[in-house]
Amino acid sequence: QMADPFLYDTGERSKYGCLGHEVQIEHIKAYVCRPSFFTDKAVIVVHDIFGWQFPDIRYIVDLIAGHGYITICPDFFKGTDPWKTTDHWADFADWMKDHDPVKVDKEADVVLTYLKEQCDAKKIGIVGFSWGGMAVHHLMLKNPQLTAGVSLYGIIRDSEERYNLLNPTFFIFGEKDHTISYDQITLLEEKLKQYCKVAYKIKVYPGQVHGFAQLKPEDMKPDDKPYIEEARKDMIDWIKMFI
């Protein structure tokens, strides 16, 4: 049986009143939050295994929108059930087979078209968390329309082509994440140095576990708060540098 990779209890979270609204784009539902002024800059947020309706991910969407971006979190699970806190980790591998984070290209294309044609977006970035971090890593290798990416504690493993990033990508990790070993981060760093032709950055945040950067302020532990805030500022700064 697989160890529970999430060291936080997702069941005991504060509620969150969202600032945005839901839309239907072709076969996908999405949550969108816009800044109060016109902008032609957009950011796609890729949710983790808990899906596009999870309050923490909507909080992140609203946070990024507050920095002046049309921000959208599509349902990359296309209406199928996300992972639930009541599910058993023994079934996780099977669940992942039906929810492959490197098979998101069609949905990404649908959302990119929507952002360009319906929202007049000229520059589009992407950030993703955990499952979404793997999806971002994949899309930054495949989709030149994405100007910059931030992959938070998601890493494509066992693939020779995972280092030829098309556009600037920032990889964020927690030091105490027991789903991603330090060896994997070191390998990523070595190989990017060797193969990557665009700007990239890797940063590991001390003492932080998997999922640390999504927490809403009231759910943060005081010791973690500075690192969470730093990771989020770093994420926004990376986006602002390129978009």
From TrEMBL:
One of its GO terms (molecular function) is hydrolase activity. It is found in: Cytoplasm, Cytosol. Residues 28-241 form the Dienelactone hydrolase domain. GO terms for cellular component: cytosol. It holds the Pfam family DLH. InterPro entries: AB_hydrolase_fold, CMBL, Dienelactn_hydro. It comes from the Eukaryota. Belongs to the dienelactone hydrolase family. This is Carboxymethylenebutenolidase homolog. It comes from Tauraco erythrolophus (Red-crested turaco).
